[in-house]
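Suppose you are handed a protein chain with no further information: no name, no annotation, nothing but its sequence. What can you learn? This example shows the usual starting point.
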Amino acid sequence: MSYIRVYENNPRFVLKAFREGQVDYIEATSELAEMDFFKFLVKRKVLKRLAETYPTPRKKEEVAAWFHISSDMSMRLHGSHSFRSLNYIWKTGGLIEALGQDIASKKIDPDTGNVIIECRGFNGKNVYDRSTPCDQDTVRKFSKDTNAGRLQVWYNNDVVKAYQDLGAFDSKGIFIGDATYVFVPDNPSYEGSAVLVFDEHNHPVDPDKLSREQLLKCQRRRCYKLITLLHVTGDGDLFICAGVHIVSGNQHENPILWRMVERFCQKFPGVMKLLITDRGFINGKKMAGCKKRFGVDTLIPVKKNMDIYQDIMGLTRLEGTEWEDYEAPERKVLPEEEEEKPDVIRRREERRQKTLKKKKKKEQKEKPPDPSKVIVRRQVAGFHDLDTWSECPIPLSGAVMREEYLDGHEDRWALTTTREFDSPGELFDDYTIREDVEERHRQYKCFWNLSKFRSTDFSLVANQIIYLLMTYSFLQIHLRLRDLGKINHQTIETIKRKLKEAQPKVIIYHQDRVAFLTIPHYTSLLLTLTEKARKRILRRAKQMWGELLEVEIFDPG
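A reasonable first move is to predict its three-dimensional structure. Written in structure tokens, the prediction is:
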């Protein structure tokens, strides 16, 4: 019979024992690295399949398409959008190790300590020794010459098929339709961009309908519009882009998204079950068509000037309307990475947190919140078989949210859907997913510098957006398959830092407990041990060394 030994992650217990010189075993490991990510793509033959379908602009490939793809993705992992950074990334990143000795090998110069890369190249035309697999300008020209339209089609078909093959789509089939503005510098050379007027919240406005005071708060900005079809798993551990379309900022997103939805359902039948969108995508004919042709339900809030909104609100005023108390599902709290700290610092932080709580309570007493903004109760009511929306030829269901505020006033808004439900709260639970996704969407727009463009050429603008979304999506799939889906809940900056640093960890075991330490933390602990504890650790380290070498280690002292 085989046994599995389980260790409890208890750094406080382990480090206390370590300071006393007690330890069972010590080893080093690396939790996550860029090399592991690309080995995953190579092992699953993702790069090979993507290269076979890539819309290459070359009749003759001097450099393999899969290397162009992997190099471009490596740039995004390193937070860089400049092709000039590739020489540095090839030398310091994990891509070269992942691709193996056939492409290149890294060595350390024993005299200088510098990293030396020995590369074979791809075309056999090298006269001199190569320090990089190819020239960075070769990758840039390859990306620039790739047609932006064909690149988007490739993503929406072949890249999304790779996501499906890796098991990215779950049985719930929840998808989010979204559109966002991508701002660029005010340079008319940005191909296909448009200049719009935005208010202080970055919402587009019509300047002819604003007063002078309102216009002073607005600004003109040049932009593109990014329409995306996003998939989120039921547990929220996976959030990938399953469709992308980049257009001028002044184009309307409604017809574009519905075309994307139809093409996705035709290409991947049965995958999408529920589409959640906002008011900007209201389209009764398309909602009915998706329900009839593909069995896809739609959940969308309705505008107050629509007949169906007035119909729903009228039903709420009838006697016998059943209202249910509603509590929004708790959002997952994203835990920060905990690092074992000295007791003095830990106690100081605890005192600081207590002081902040007291200060917050005092401020709330002295300056209570605006009662017109404090919700004291939420109630929901639902209705079926609504047929007053003439544009939608099938019956709909609707649900109303009634929010009561501390000052006595109330606010109402409504959702409509093509599916049946047992409780109206179900619809608002599902719509909350879209609100959570907004935060995840904001992360890659802000933290991965989506708008930090280096070229005005539209092909390179599209290249940057698409490769960023592709890298972000594959990274989440990789983490989930490694049972690290919880990392996907953290900010993108945290994920990038883990990949960039790939910092090895020292693992200390003691009495079925374990602690994970960074190299600097472990070193500082060693250097501050008492003499008695130091000798104990030294003795145990020599025993472990001997066990590894299968010889006895003698202490010459």
